[in-house]
Each structure stands twice: as C-alpha cells, then as structure tokens.
Amino acid sequence: MKMNERYLLILFSQYALAQVCYFFGDKTKTFQTSPGYKPCSSKITAYSTCCDFGNGDKCLENGLCLQPDTNETGVMYRGDCTNKNWDNCPDICLRVNTGGAEPLRQCSSKDYCCWSDSRGSNCCNLEGRQFPVTDGPHVNRRKTPVAAIAGGVVAGVVVIIGLLGLCWWWFRRRRASVNGKANINDKGCEKRDKSTTTFNPALAEVDAGPGSVLEESNARVIQRKTVHELPA
C-alpha cells in the first residue's frame, strides 16, 4: 500500500472512530474523562453513554453503567456522555456531582437515589430524592434539538464529500501519471522503429540501364562518355 492510500485510510478511520467522552459540568463547560471511559455499543443501549471499561465496568440497556462488586448486583452509576451538552444521555444525578460519575444507592427494588445526596444521611430517607430506574431503556434523557441534529448531519455530509473528492483527485492524478508514462514509451518505440527503416540513399542501388556507372558517394547515375580517336 502506497503512502497516499495509507494516509486516506488513517484519515477516514480516525474520523469514523474518534469519540471523546465527557463528564457533565454546567452551562459553560464540560470535563473530558479519563482514557478508560469508552462509548457503549449501540447493540447494548440506544443512549450515547460512556462507561469505565478500564475497570471492567459494563454498559446497561437503560443508559447507566454497572460496576462489579462483591455482591451479586454490583453498583449502578451514571457514567459519561459522548455529547458535550449531554444530548441523548440519562438525565440522572446531574446536579449533585459535576465533573465525575455518580453512583446510585438502591432504596427499594426499583427506587434509587444519588449517592452524593447521602452526605451526613442516607439519601433514601430524604424526601423527594428517590427516582425509579428500570432495566430497559426508559430512563429520562435529554433530547437533542432539531437544529443540532441538522447541523451534525450537514457537517458529516461535508466531511464525507471532502474525503470522496480527495480520493477522486488522487485517483485521477495517479491515472494521468500512468498514462503519461505509457505515451512516452509509445513515442520512444515509434522513433526507434522509424530510425530502423530510414531510407539511406548512399547505400541504394540504382539500375539506370546499360552504359551507366553508380557513384557510391551520392548514388548519382553517371552516363559513360564516348571517346573518339583523332585522325593521325
């Protein structure tokens, strides 16, 4: 594979796979997470959630993450998001812990509360701090504005068109280079063929009939002269 092909492949793969995860911050900033956080597969969840795969955590269908623990259930927590504005990510425990993941405390079979609310007391005992969490994709999520979706689609289309244009330009340039070399070789062969069949008048034989002499220097025909004897 040549350098240009390798460069185009790397460029396209980086664009397709580059996804950064962000902790929720406030209206003015977000926080990029550690390298251990990776986006969850779309085969598992419809959310744009990131979980800490560096510690062996798992993605859940409801958009949350599961941290292995000594008990059978483990600890669920709100992870990160691939979108800075937290679009299409679970809207859970965002006000209690900005700049980091937030574990959930289980209060009942379906009700949970944010662990950070347990400072000094159990958040399960605080009124209005509990919320239901289901196993399926039913956790509240922030909706992506239509304008943001349209802008993202347009930007993606522009990038793809640019990559296709670059590939087309490189292909045309390579084909023109190959055709140019072929034309040069064809012209060289044509010149060589003409040089081998060039007529050489110096070596030509001319049949001018009887009484004629061929002069080799310029292949001109010279007629014999008749010599008359003078009277004695």
Count of beta strands:
13
Structural class comes to alpha+beta
What is the terminal-to-terminal distance? 100 Å
For the biggest β-sheet, the strand order reads 5-6-7-9-10-11
Overall radius of gyration: 43 Å
How much of the sequence is in beta strands? 15-25%
Q: What's the tally of helices?
A: 2
Percentage of residues assigned to helices: 25-40%
Q: Note poorly predicted spans.
A: 8-17, 144-154, 195-199, 201-206, 214-219
Question: Helix-strand pattern, N to C?
Answer: HEEEEEEEEEEEHEE
Report on the biggest sheet.
6 strands, antiparallel
Mean pLDDT: 70
Which outline best applies?
A: rod-shaped
Keywords: Membrane, Signal, Transmembrane, Transmembrane helix
Can you walk through the features of this model?
Strand 9 and strand 10 form a beta hairpin. The protein has a domain of 125 residues. It is built from 2 helices and 13 strands, in the order H-E-E-E-E-E-E-E-E-E-E-E-H-E-E. The chain has 232 residues and is of the alpha+beta class. The strands form 4 sheets. It has a 6-stranded antiparallel beta sheet with strand order 5-6-7-9-10-11, with no helix packed on it. About 16% of the residues have low confidence. Keywords: Membrane, Signal, Transmembrane, Transmembrane helix.
